[in-house]
Amino acid sequence: MSETGIYEPFYKVIGKELEVFEHAYLNKLPLLLKGPTGSGKSRFIEYATYKSNQKLITVSCHEETSSTDLIGRYLIKGAETVWQDGPLTKAVKEGYIIYLDEIAEARPDILVAIHSLTDHRRILFMDKIGESLKAHPDFMLVASFNPGYQKGFKELKPSTRQRFIALTFNYPEPKLEAEILIGESSVDKEIAKKLIAIGTKIRNLTELGLTETASTRLLVDAAILIKSGLPKRLATETAIVEPLTDDPEIAEALKDLCNLII
Ligand code: ADP
What we know:
Blueprint: H1 17-27, E1 31-34, H2 41-51, E2 56-60, H3 67-71, E3 72-77, E4 80-85, H4 87-94, E5 97-101, H5 109-115, E6 123-126, E7 131-134, E8 140-145, H6 158-161, E9 165-168, H7 174-185, H8 189-204, H9 216-228, H10 232-244, H11 248-261
Parallel strand pairs: 1-8, 1-9, 2-5, 5-8
Antiparallel strand pairs: 3-4, 6-7
């Protein structure tokens, strides 16, 4: 447990990601975590922040996330208007690590807002109150991005990407992924191996045209359901097949595949 009373998050280190993070943090270089959904990006940043004894603020970006949501806004309280700092301002002031999850989903004005924070200036311009804020020495910006090559995924402009150093996340090799499943759910090793076999098969089925594939997260969910006592086939159907597709034929094919293995 850390001094702040937070327990160490469970995270299996896959490669050199912690080393890269430590040096990025030491030099306060903005860091971009690239990789598909459920590949451990968020868990990694929780772990890396914990290991560096820092505090983390996470913002899950979506289509409506704007610079106002990050920087702050005036609120009306009784007869007064009071300024309320947004999470980015708080992080810049107090020296937190801020994690902008799925940054490409947010409105483009947030890219303008972080511009001067991602270069040597390390300044946040708060246009609504006409102030600029020098970042606390401990402040660091981390963002994640899903480079999905399928339709419907938003791209990140090359000029924005160049402002970050970047780490790629992918699904870990089977032995490590099985350890993650066991670590997260305490499921038996044999079951973990079978779930990994299902995951690997689905990841190789590119002809099904799934927009997303069987992530570590989905396999962990199936393991949790099985450990909790749900019949294995029902667990794989509800945790793996149904989240991946709404097409009845593809669902049938995936169910058959799972039932063959488990
Ligand atoms: P992302 O942020 O990439 O969408 P998450 O970090 O939320 O993915 O990971 C999804 C789940 O997968 C986590 O809740 C955790 O159960 C599991 N997971 C993935 N990779 C790891 C890892 N290396 N160590 C521990 N758990 C992991």
